[in-house]
Amino acid sequence: MEGQETPQPDDGFPTDPQPPDTDGDALPDFGRIAEQFRELARAKDRLESLLDAVLAISREVELPAVLHRIVTTAMELVGARYGALGVLHESGGYLEQFITAGLSDQERAHLAGVDFPRGRGVLGHLIHHPQPLRADEIASHPSSVGFPPGHPHMRTLLGVAISVRGEIYGDLYLSERRDGRPFDAHDENIVIALASAAGIAIESARLLEQVRARAEQFQRLLLPRLSDLSPFEAAAVYRPATEPNSVGGDWYDAIMLPDDAVSIVIGDVVGHDLHAAAAMAQTRNMLRALLFDRRTPPSAVLAQLDRTLKAITDNPVTTTSLARIEPDGPAWRLHWSSAGHLPPLLVTPDRRARYLYADPGLPLGVDTSLPRPDHTHPLPPGTTVVFFTDGLVEHPAHPIDRSLADLAELAVAHAGLPLEAYVTALADNHPSDGHDDIALLALRTPAGDPAPKP
Question: Does the predicted TM-score (pTM) go above 0.85?
Answer without folding.
Answer: no
